[in-house]
């Protein structure tokens, strides 16, 4: 017998199984696939964490696209109101353009805050152990970690855009 030859003592107890797990699939004497079951459980937990992260990322993407659409609608409505005010030559009509700017600014601040809350949730789930994944989408535990809604509304990211809109309305109103 050669030193490197292997007989039945080299293999784990049990018999080979012919399933999709390949060469690492061992079935014990009771017919239980311990390696395969461990592998399935590990993969399922990792897939659950990945799926939870994908769900959260989907919400974050929706919030960002909502913000983009709000800005587009704001520009469209303000342009339409200013065009109508120029047609009728009534300066007071241009004052109506401030209303959509204010409403969209407030709504955009809400979506930005929600996006930040879900980013905090994403960070929490990212470092959570796979066995503790519960698919919770509750962001209430991060309320104190993210700035308040009014504070987010006047943040630089929103103020630059919306103050530019206000300035444009003011400029059009003055130049008439």
What does this structure look like?
- With 176 residues, this protein is mostly helical.
- The protein has one domain.
- The protein is 65% helix and 2% strand.
- The protein contains five helices and two strands.
- Strands 1-2 form a two-stranded antiparallel sheet.
- Helix 1 runs antiparallel to helix 3, helix 1 (34-88) runs parallel beside helix 5 and helix 3 (98-127) packs antiparallel against helix 5 (156-175).
- The model is unreliable at 1-26 (pLDDT under 50).
What's the arrangement of secondary structure elements?
Layout lengths: L14 E2 L9 E2 L6 H55 L2 H4 L3 H30 L21 H5 L2 H20 L1
Antiparallel strand pairs: 1-2
Which features would summarize this protein structure in a list?
5 helices; two-stranded antiparallel ribbon; 2% strand; 2 strands; mainly alpha; 176 residues
Write the element-wise H/E pattern from the N-terminal end onward.
EEHHHHH
Strand order of the largest sheet: 1-2
When the domains are counted, the total is 1
Amino- and carboxy-terminal Cα gap: 104 Å
Portion in beta strands: under 5%
Largest sheet: 2 strands, antiparallel
Give unreliable regions as ranges: 1-26
Query: Number of DSSP strands?
Result: 2
Helical fraction: 55-70%
Tally the helices: 5
Radius of gyration: 30 Å
Envelope shape: elongated
Average pLDDT rating: 81
SS-derived structural category: mainly alpha
